[in-house]
């Protein structure tokens, strides 16, 4: 797997270097090139992620991790290039996938397992602390209470009538059942009295019934086998498949144990090998360095006639003596930088050097069956570390030796340069200093701040939701529709991919967050029920991030006044930085940017954060793994200009299309315990729910598939008619409402 990824990576790097020399200028050709690179990097990313999760060799894992993070960053760079080229967050690759003979599932970006695996203990400890604080404050029981639905008098009377009629119906059914059993007993009594006179006719009747039953059962079995063969029905032999999955899980966990064991041995070897090198090779390294520096002293005096000035420690000390380049080498590239500025050129990548470095270090080590660490590689690495440490000590000695040589040979004395120091100080004053955030809580511990935020309800427990649970299908006709000048509606699969790219990958990897195109804020827009809150919780679940709730309804009445607001924001951002990654969620964010505050909401002060948000975003640095996520179902009520200034990326989440609804109905019914049979027409349900959101569909399924209905499936299979009554009580998202999101 790793070998395949390395081969594909080598070919891709060659292709990128060729295109960089002669970049195309036609926009369609440029997009095709970027999209092809993007898809190929995604394939490599999938292979590397699996390899990093399963390989047990500790040094290989370090190398794969370096390339894995670099490939992640390169994917984000290419995505940014495509967005700037097309001025759209959504792209359609159906034609390219067809050319590359890939399935849409292979375009899904996996979430690296190491995001959670490497900090599992920290997350468990944090979960215990959060649960203890909530329990002590009495907030755990409050959060578990379900919201009560307000019911009118007419609805209450109707509910009582339905309940009473059902009770009477049950009594009537019991009475009719008793009458039926009585008739059956009387009939059986009469049959016992009558004796069968013709044995032949009885045998013919039995044969007729048996052959009819046997033939119908055979025909049904043949039809079922045909549908399984055509791939239109799942195979009934699920038990063997489950056993295979269980065995695969056992092997995976066994590899995890071997990984931990090898990592412990590797960490111990780092210490012991360095100690041995220091004892055995340390004196030789010291002598060699001193000889080299003395030789440099003599060479400089022979050329210039005087001894040189020893490089300062800030400049690197003696390390820069043997690494300097000539002025000609420095200026070779400068003459080529201004050529062809007007032509399109791909932005320089910060990740390709790391990919090339990792790719060059790949070696086929299939002979190493145990996959233990390589001591020679550790020695090579630790020699460099040891040389750097010894070099600092040698520099102190050689500075003094150079000073003595100057006094003895050239009769020079070291003159302190006070004037220069003053000038340097003055220059430092002239330079502009960036604004530093003042610490308003210097005397408080992190635990006390964390506890206060939890008790105030600003730091909440995210729901355990995987991004894969956000069900959606790929858009198969995106490119075709664009060719006939129709802009296709983005699919839920595209939304899921954007959440992975802009939210999960940067928060999960520090390297990617620091070097990749920085996304500080994200806005999720869509009608009620499309899964905006679910996606926020999924980002936190997949990255192990803290979730801060700064919605206007949640902060109403808390930390009043200007100083209170500043203190609240300071505490949230301080804890978010110290316990990163963190997600700051602003629900119903249109209220923060109201054009005009409704009279009912004036006391809540919904626009408290309007002026503070730009300041917060300005203070966020690349090393701060913090993401501000806003959600809104009514963006047209907000002042669009400040809203768009605050939110860097705006993702429109549409109602599900037919393909997504079909998959959603099928998967949610099966997850709820329902059985998909021929009696249940999923296609029909998918068609009649056009305009309904995912939340409404899930709500309908849960209301129908009660425990009693699940138990009765063997006697009475599910049908599409059962779900229609619940659907009729709901209002779908009409086309006019969906169009209003596009205009806004």
Structural account:
The chain is mostly helical. Among the domains are: 243-324 and 371-414, no CATH class; 440-654, P-loop containing nucleotide triphosphate hydrolases (Rossmann fold, 3-Layer(aba) Sandwich); 658-743, Orthogonal Bundle (Helicase, Ruva Protein, domain 3), CATH 1.10.8. The protein is built from 30 helices and six strands. It has helices at 2-21, 27-54, 58-86, 94-100, 114-117, 120-137, 139-144, 153-193, 199-229, 238-280, 282-304, 327-331, 352-360, 375-410, 418-430, 446-455, 478-483, 492-508, 510-515, 532-543, 552-555, 561-578, 612-619, 640-646, 658-671, 682-688, 694-704, 707-711, 721-728, 735-743; strands spanning 459-460, 521-525, 546-549, 582-587, 626-632, 649-652. It has a six-stranded mixed β-sheet, with helices on both faces. Helix 3 (58-86) crosses helix 18 (492-508). The radius of gyration is 35 Å and the shape is globular. It starts with a helix and ends with a helix. Keywords: ATP-binding, Nucleotide-binding. Residues 522-639 form the ATPase AAA-type core domain. Residues 414-440 are annotated as: Disordered. This is IQ motif containing with AAA domain 1. Residues 418-435 have a biased composition (Basic residues).
Specify the number of helices: 30
CATH superfamily of the domain at 440-654: P-loop containing nucleotide triphosphate hydrolases
Strand order of the largest sheet: 1-3-4-5-2-6
- How big a fraction of the residues is strand? under 5%
CATH fold label of the domain at 440-654: Rossmann fold
Radius of gyration: 35 Å
Structural class: mainly alpha
Under the CATH scheme, the architecture of the domain at 440-654 is 3-Layer(aba) Sandwich
Distance between the termini: 47 Å
Note the overall shape.
globular
What is the count of β-strands?
Answer: 6
Largest sheet, in brief, is:
6 strands, mixed
CATH C-level of the domain at 440-654: Alpha Beta
- Mean pLDDT score: 82
Low-confidence parts: 141-146, 325-341, 417-432
Question: In which range does the helix fraction lie?
Answer: 55-70%
Biased composition (Basic residues): 418-435
Pfam family, one: AAA
Domain ATPase AAA-type core: 522-639
InterPro entries: ATPase_AAA_core, N-DRC_Component, P-loop_NTPase
């Amino acid at each position: 797997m790793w070998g395949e990824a390395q081969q594909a990576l080598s070919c891709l790097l060659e292709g990128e270097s060729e295109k960089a020399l002669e970049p195309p200028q036609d926009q369609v050709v440029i997009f095709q090139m970027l999209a092809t690179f993007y898809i190929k990097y995604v394939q490599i990313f999938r292979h590397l992620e699996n390899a990093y999760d399963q390989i047990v060799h500790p040094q290989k894992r370090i190398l794969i991790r370096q390339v894995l993070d670099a490939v992640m960053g390169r994917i984000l760079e290419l995505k940014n290039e495509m967005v700037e080229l097309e001025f759209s967050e959504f792209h359609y690759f159906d034609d390219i996938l067809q050319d590359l003979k890939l399935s849409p599932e292979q375009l899904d970006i996996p979430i690296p397992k190491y995001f959670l695996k490497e900090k599992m203990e920290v997350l468990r400890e944090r979960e215990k602390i959060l649960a203890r604080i909530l329990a002590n404050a009495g907030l755990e029981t409050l959060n578990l209470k379900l919201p009560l639905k307000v019911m009118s008098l007419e609805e209450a009377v109707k509910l009582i009538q339905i309940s009473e009629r059902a009770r009477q119906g049950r009594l009537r059914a019991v009475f009719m059942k008793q009458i039926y059993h009585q008739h059956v007993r009387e009939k059986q009594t009469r049959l016992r009295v009558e004796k069968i006179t013709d044995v032949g006719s009885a045998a013919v009747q039995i044969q007729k019934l048996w052959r009819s039953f046997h033939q119908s059962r055979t025909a049904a079995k043949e039809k079922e086998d045909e549908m399984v063969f055509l791939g239109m029905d799942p195979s009934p032999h699920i038990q063997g498949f489950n056993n295979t999955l269980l065995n695969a899980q056992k092997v995976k966990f066994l590899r995890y144990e071997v990984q931990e064991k090898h990592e412990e041995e590797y960490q111990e070897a780092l210490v012991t090998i360095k100690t041995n090198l220091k004892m055995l090779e340390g004196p030789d390294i010291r002598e060699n360095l001193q000889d080299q520096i003395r030789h440099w002293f003599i060479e400089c005096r022979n050329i210039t006639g005087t001894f040189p000035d020893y490089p300062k420690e800030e400049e690197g000390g003696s390390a820069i003596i043997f690494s300097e380049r000539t002025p000609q080498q420095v200026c070779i590239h400068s003459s080529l930088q201004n050529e062809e500025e007007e032509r399109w050129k791909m932005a320089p990548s910060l990740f390709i050097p790391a990919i090339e470095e990792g790719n060059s270090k790949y070696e086929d080590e299939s002979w190493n069956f145990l996959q233990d660490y390589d001591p020679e590689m550790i020695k090579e690495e630790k020699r460099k570390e040891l040389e750097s440490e010894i070099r600092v000590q040698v520099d102190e000695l050689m500075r003094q030796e150079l000073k003595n040589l100057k006094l003895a040979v050239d009769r020079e004395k070291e003159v302190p340069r006070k004037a220069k120091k003053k000038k340097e100080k003055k220059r430092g004053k002239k330079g502009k200093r960036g604004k530093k955030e003042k610490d308003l809580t210097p005397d408080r511990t992190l635990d006390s701040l964390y506890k206060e935020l939890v008790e105030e309800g600003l730091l909440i427990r995210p729901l355990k939701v995987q991004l894969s649970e956000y069900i959606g299908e790929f858009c198969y006709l995106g490119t075709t529709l664009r060719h006939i000048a129709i802009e296709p509606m983005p699919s839920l699969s595209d939304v899921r991919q954007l959440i992975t790219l802009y939210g999960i990958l940067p928060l999960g990897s520090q390297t990617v967050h620091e070097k990749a195109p920085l996304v500080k804020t994200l806005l999720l827009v869509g009608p009620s029920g499309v899964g905006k809150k679910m996606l926020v919780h999924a980002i936190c679940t997949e990255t192990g991030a803290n979730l801060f709730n700064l919605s206007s309804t949640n902060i109403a009445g808390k930390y009043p006044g200007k100083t209170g607001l500043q203190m609240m924001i300071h505490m949230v951002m301080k804890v978010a930085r110290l316990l990163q990654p963190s997600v700051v969620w602003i629900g119903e964010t249109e209220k923060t940017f109201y054009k005009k505050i409704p009279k009912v909401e004036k006391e809540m002060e919904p626009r408290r954060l309007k002026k503070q948000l730009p300041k917060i975003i300005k203070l966020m640095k690349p090393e701060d793994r913090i993401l501000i996520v806003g959600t809104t179902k009514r963006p047209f009520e907000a002042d669009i200009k400040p809203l768009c200034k605050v939110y860097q990326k705006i993702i429109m989440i549409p109602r599900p299309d037919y393909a997504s609804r079909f998959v959603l109905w099928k998967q949610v019914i099966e997850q709820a315990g329902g059985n998909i049979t021929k009696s249940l027409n999923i296609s029909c349900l998918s068609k009649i729910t056009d305009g309904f959101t995912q939340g409404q569909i899930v709500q309908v399924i849960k209301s129908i598939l009660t425990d009693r209905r699940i138990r009765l499936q063997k006697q009475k299979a599910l049908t599409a008619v059962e779900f229609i009554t619940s659907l009729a009580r709901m209002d779908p998202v009409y086309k006019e409402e969906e169009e209003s999101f596009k205009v806004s």
